[in-house]
Amino acid sequence: MGWPRDDTKLARVQALMAEEDLDALVVRAPDNVLYLTNYWCMKGYDVAVFPREGEPTLCVIEPQAEEAAGVAWTSDIRPFASYHPEDPRPPGARSAELALDVLRERGLTGRIGLELSQGTQGVDRMVGEPTVFTQGYFEMFPNAVDASRLLAGARMIKTGQEIERMRLANELAALALEHVQERLAAGMTESEVGAMWEGHVHAHGVGFEGKIEMARGFALVWSGTNIRTFTATGNGSIQQDEPTLFEIWVCADGYWCDLTKNLCPGTLTPEYDALLDTLLTIYDEAVDYAVDGAELAGLDRLVRDRIREAGYPGQPSHPVCHAVGARAHEPPYAHQAGEGTIREGMVLAIEPGIYWPGGGGLRLEDNFLITAAGSEKLCRVPDDFRRSR
């Protein structure tokens, strides 16, 4: 189920490396390894050496070597021992040494770009136990410079292949939500409903359309007065005539969607009906604003101003716009005191929210591909969930 080599993406990275006079990138965050090699690692010890010219090298733990060779965009696969009988160090030490051997072997002795300031990373396929590298790893590389900004800049603009992969993630999210909608009833627990959605993504996402090897869903579910800005799913009851909010992510072979959708058993109360109308108006104005050339700061300011004018000053306490791709949250972020411009080819999650004191409220969120003509919504689930009953 491997994807063809995305030369547009790789050439963009190499051009940025030339501008910064980098001989190579050495990346270990799973999302960057995926971005540069198409290999979504199992445990997070793997490293990719990506030279400015020539073939990349992928250093993988031995049990994954065959799988990596089947999907990676390079034939230079270098296995290293996950367990070594004479070396008690963690596997990351051996992958770093192997990467250094590759640099020396190929004469890459100039400036080497590392992820020195990347604040978050995508999960590996083990999901529940992220692997991080320590200071000693970064200190092993001579002539190291920070390539985090370069990688983030390259990743902001999506290629056609990346967009196709994100469409698959969005479709899996929609199918799972439709599955839940047919079964949702007052009195079910939020955790029960979240498990139903997540299980459908995994059960139907693996092998989906003959294109996806691994798909996982991640859900936060809250109903009625349990709706908050951000909290864990509990065992509260699904409420009749009030929204049940789904904060949901799908990761399909390392590419993500990030959505907030709502369902309601019954008919919305008048209070929620009015709140949804208010939020939809703000949401639609924000989506119309998000065009090539618009300032990101202006988008954040617009949403917060409109929410303040609706009687909810200071809301929301979460960001209202960020990019999505090989992570569910990646640059750029919209902030009224920040910089940056919306550009064609970005995929942005736009997510205004209004929350009531004491509990309850609404958030709307979808992923929008910025095009020459405006923006395209990537998930077919309607944001006015009164239409989906």
Features:
single chain; 389 residues; alpha+beta; Creatine Amidinohydrolase, Chain A, domain 1; Creatine Amidinohydrolase; 2 domains; 6-stranded mixed beta sheet; 10 helices; globular
What does this protein structure show overall?
With 389 residues, the chain is α+β, with helices and mostly antiparallel strands. The protein has two domains: 7-156, Creatine Amidinohydrolase, Chain A, domain 1 (3-Layer(aba) Sandwich); 160-388, Creatine Amidinohydrolase (Alpha-Beta Complex). Helix content is 33%, strand content 20%. The protein contains ten helices and 16 strands. The protein has helices spanning 7-19, 30-37, 65-71, 91-105, 135-139, 148-156, 160-181, 190-205, 270-289, 296-309; strands spanning 24-27, 47-51, 57-61, 77-80, 112-114, 144-146, 215-223, 244-252, 255-263, 321-323, 330-333, 347-350, 353-355, 361-363, 366-371, 374-377. The strands form four sheets. Strands 4-3-2-1-5-6 form a six-stranded mixed β-sheet, with helices on both faces. A five-stranded antiparallel β-sheet has the order 11-10-12-15-16, with helices on one face. α1 (7-19) packs antiparallel against α6 (148-156) and α7 packs across α8. The mean pLDDT is 96.
